[in-house]
């Protein structure tokens, strides 16, 4: 039986992934900031819940060490996230620090703890949720865009750096998913039309947004397809269309297209 360690399992994509893998017979290490609040995942005998806040290095070390003493982990799935919408000039120091600390540094902290373990095993898969915003810059995504581009860059670097050790690195690239994920937003006067245009582009049909369960199916495919050369898995019809359009047009032409 294989084991997956999931960061950010309390809701949305993380919880849907934990359920799917548990139902497929995997051992699931489901981590979250407030495990005492979890009620659904506790019903699975092959799901083990641990506390993990990616902004707390000491807790990361303790939880990862405890888990690796008890379980042989095959897959690390980085899925913790913090979102925001803001004019660039309005971002506060607190918001920027929170975003970078969660989306980028949090992912790095957890991944660092697993690399020596996977190197010793000479195998392992590091999978990380990025975003369409990590593939193309869109207005008003603020420091979130920087976080996600950085995460994509780190993963591509690790794809090459860890390959000689038998370790795979992959990313999941969702667009707008129907989850409880909250984007903190500030007032943005003068951007009504721009926001409307971007919303229509990313969510032309708000009644049929991709569900966390659909993303979880793509995650399961990414983990189990044995394609060691593929790094990027884009999820959702609209996201795939935009991603492919950028590939087709090239960066400069795509920016004009947008």
UniProtKB/TrEMBL annotation:
One Pfam family from the record: adh_short
Swiss-Prot/TrEMBL keywords: Oxidoreductase
UniProt-listed CDD domains: 17beta-HSD-like_SDR_c (cd05374)
Source organism, top-level taxon: Bacteria
Record-stated family: Belongs to the short-chain dehydrogenases/reductases (SDR) family.
Protein name: Short-chain dehydrogenase
Lineage: Bacteria, Bacillati, Bacillota, Bacilli, Lactobacillales
């Amino acid at each position: 039986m294989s084991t997956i360690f999931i960061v950010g399992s309390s809701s949305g994509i993380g919880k849907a992934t934990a359920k799917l893998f548990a139902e497929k017979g995997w051992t699931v290490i489901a981590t979250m900031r407030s495990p005492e609040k979890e009620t659904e995942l506790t019903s699975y005998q092959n799901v083990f819940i641990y506390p993990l806040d990616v902004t707390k290095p000491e807790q990361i070390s303790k939880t990862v060490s405890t888990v690796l003493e008890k379980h042989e982990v095959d897959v690390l799935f980085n899925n913790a996230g913090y979102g925001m919408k803001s004019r660039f000039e309005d971002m506060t120091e607190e918001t920027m620090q929170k975003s970078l600390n969660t989306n980028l540094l949090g992912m790095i902290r957890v991944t660092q703890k697993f690399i020596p373990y996977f190197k010793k095993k000479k195998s392992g898969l590091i999978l990380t949720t990025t975003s369409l915003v990590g593939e193309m810059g869109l207005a008003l995504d603020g420091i979130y865009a920087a976080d996600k581009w950085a995460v994509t860059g780190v993963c591509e670097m690790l794809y090459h750096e860890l390959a000689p050790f038998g370790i795979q690195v992959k990313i999941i690239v969702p667009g707008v998913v129907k989850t409880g994920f909250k984007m903190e937003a500030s007032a943005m006067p003068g951007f009504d039309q721009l926001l409307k245009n971007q919303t229509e582009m990313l969510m032309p049909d708000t009644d049929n947004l991709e569900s966390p369960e659909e993303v979880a199916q793509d995650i399961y495919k990414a983990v189990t397809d044995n394609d060691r050369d593929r790094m990027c898995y884009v999820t959702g019809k609209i996201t795939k269309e935009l991603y492919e359009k950028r590939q087709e047009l090239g960066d400069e032409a795509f920016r004009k297209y947008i």
